[in-house]
Fold this protein.
Amino acid sequence: MIKLEFLKSCADDLVTHSKKEFLGEVLEWIEFALQFYPDTTEIDLQKTVEGAYKAIEGYAKKNNKQCLTPKAATTIIIEYLGINKQSATQPVNLDDFM
């Protein structure tokens, strides 16, 4: 499934989920993590928002963390989704050209 289909599928799944507000925030993190990846990025059909939350929670428990930085959460999400980090487009820093 491609990125946009995955995000729509996740949003549709949350409509009736009992924890939709909480998992909606996790979906926002997933959207944030995927923003620099092309729309054609393939994501496994078995991956879910709840699974991403469990991956983040597992990392936090394993490393005795109470909270994570946005960079750490993004890394965990990208790894959970099985996406090649090299396929992301990096934002351009305009200071590099001045």
